[in-house]
């Protein structure tokens, strides 16, 4: 089995940018939750008569959160036998589950290296505005509710801490 890296963090913390850089450096397959399932989730939400850009409501989480993550892990496992893999997704509920690294090890068939990507909330808000993604509209429209409901704590399991708030965007590791 090749090496596997799992990158997590809050929306707009810099997960995708960091994951692309890491995958390029390792010559790894990049599996980003937004890229892997974004179009399917949008289509399903539309067919259900829901906001196609919603990624935060209880309806989205009930219908899509687990299947999107399961698809990421299935595709990762299928590729790990012949290539290193970088998995990128928020995984916010998993931050407080001490057993999650062992669950991943069992699921993936290898011991993944876990990366937590972080930056302060003002920078995350600015990044959301600048990227102009439809999935961020509701967050920005009611920033205070989004901010108070967002996780800022670090995961309980051992991880590589990546601060993407540095001016040079080099994704410093601590």
TrEMBL record:
Residues 164-174 have a biased composition (Acidic residues). InterPro entries: P-loop_NTPase. Residues 149-174 are annotated as: Disordered. Residues 149-163 have a biased composition (Basic and acidic residues). This is AAA domain-containing protein. It comes from Haloferula helveola.
């Amino acid at each position: 089995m090749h090496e596997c890296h799992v990158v997590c963090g809050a929306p707009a913390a810099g997960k995708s940018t960091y994951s692309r850089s890491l995958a390029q450096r390792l010559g790894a397959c990049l599996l980003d939750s937004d890229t892997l399932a974004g179009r399917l989730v949008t289509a399903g939400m539309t067919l259900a008569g829901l906001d196609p850009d919603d990624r935060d409501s209880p309806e989205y989480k009930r219908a899509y959160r687990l299947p999107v993550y399961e698809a990421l892990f299935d595709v990762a496992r299928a590729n790990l036998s012949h290539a290193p893999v970088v998995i990128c997704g928020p995984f916010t509920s998993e931050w407080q589950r001490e057993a999650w690294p062992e669950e991943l090890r069992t699921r993936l068939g290898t011991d993944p290296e876990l990366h937590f990507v972080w930056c302060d909330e003002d920078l995350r808000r600015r990044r959301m505005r600048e990227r102009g993604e439809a999935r961020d509209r509701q967050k920005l429209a009611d920033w205070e509710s989004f901010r108070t409901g967002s996780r800022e704590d670090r995961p309980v399991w051992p991880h590589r801490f990546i601060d993407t708030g540095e001016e040079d965007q080099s994704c410093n590791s601590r």
